[in-house]
Amino acid sequence: MIRFENVSKVYDGQTRPALADLSLEVDKGEFVFLVGQSGSGKSTFLRLALRELRPSRGRVFVAGKELNRLSSWKVPRLRRQIGTVFQDFRLLPNKTIFDNVAFALQVIGGSRSQIVKEVPVVLELVGLDGKENRMPDELSGGEQQRVAIARAFVNRPKILIADEPTGNLDPSTSVGIMKLLDRINRTGTTVLMATHDASIVDQMRKRVIELDGGKLVRDQTRGVYGYQT
Ligand SMILES: Nc1ncnc2c1ncn2[C@@H]1O[C@H](COP(=O)(O)OP(=O)(O)OP(=O)(O)O)[C@@H](O)[C@H]1O
Questions:
Q1: Would you state the pLDDT for residue 133?
Q2: Which of 15, 35, 44 for a ligand 1 pocket mutation test, highest count of atoms within 8 Å of Cβ?
């Protein structure tokens, strides 16, 4: 589903690579934690998979496509297959919960009937049925993150990329968010999650990939967080 072949990334004006000769493969349906100190290259890795960045060397394949050879007009089609969730939720503050999720379908040309059918299903999946008419600032942080997950998942992407999704949440709320991501993973969606949350990684016992200075230093099945910050 995702394959990096000898990928290096040196940002403009930098000499030290943010990622250095990274090779790894993530199969369909896997759940992978990406861990490492701040600056180790996790976000760079995720941004390469989204083709927000291009590698300086090496090749990135996502959903069967080599991203460097993908024409720009095909990038939106690629991104439709990848849902994204971030630490800061990124909801539209002036739209209701329903409309925040509906918007994700509208921008990809979803019909009104599809929206009316799919949005309630996904809001129920994330445990927010009954709250569809609220505004984002009328929800708790954990609930806002559930909306963000609903929005990322409503068009059933093949891959869900989550960059520190529990970074702004307390431990018990985080556990609820992880149960939800686990549930989404069980539908067959590949989940890739960058995190500094040691207790979550230790509880979930999924595959753990650790980066250090842009290099892959650990790839462990049913792994643990495994280092001190
Ligand atoms: N746009 C940029 N321009 C130049 N250097 C960058 C840029 N983005 C990231 N870097 C550098 O690349 C390296 C990797 O950064 P990256 O953001 O991928 O790390 P990270 O593991 O996601 O960190 P964090 O856990 O703090 O989010 C760091 O040295 C960082 O300073």
A1: 97
A2: 44
Question: Has residue 113 been placed in a domain?
Answer: yes
- pLDDT value of residue 186: 97
Compute, in angstroms, the gap from residue 41 CA to the centroid of ligand 1: 6
CA of 37 to the centre of ligand 1 (A): 11
Tell whether ipTM is more than 0.95: yes
**CA-45 nearest atom, ligand 1:** 18
pTM greater than 0.90 (yes/no): yes
Ligand 1 atom closest to 39 (CA): 19
The reply to whether 132 falls in a domain is yes
DSSP code of residue 178: H
> In the structure encoding, which two tokens stand for residue 25, read together?
């493969």
Probe target for ligand 1 pocket from 7, 8, 10, 11, with the most ligand atoms within 8 Å of CB = 11
Count of structural domains within the chain: 1
- Per-residue buried b or exposed e for 171-183, using 16+ beta carbons within 10 Å of the residue's own CB: eebbbbbbebbee
Strand order in the sheet with 2-9: 19-26, 2-9, 57-62, 65-66
pLDDT of residue 229: 67
Domain range for 97 is 92-156
Q: Specify whether the CB–CB gap between 161 and 85 falls below 8 A.
A: yes
pLDDT the model gives residue 227: 78
Residue 119 within a domain? yes
Low-confidence stretches of the chain (pLDDT < 50) are none
| 56 pocket-lining for ligand 1 (C-beta < 6 Å) | no
Residue 13 alpha carbon, nearest atom of ligand 1: 4
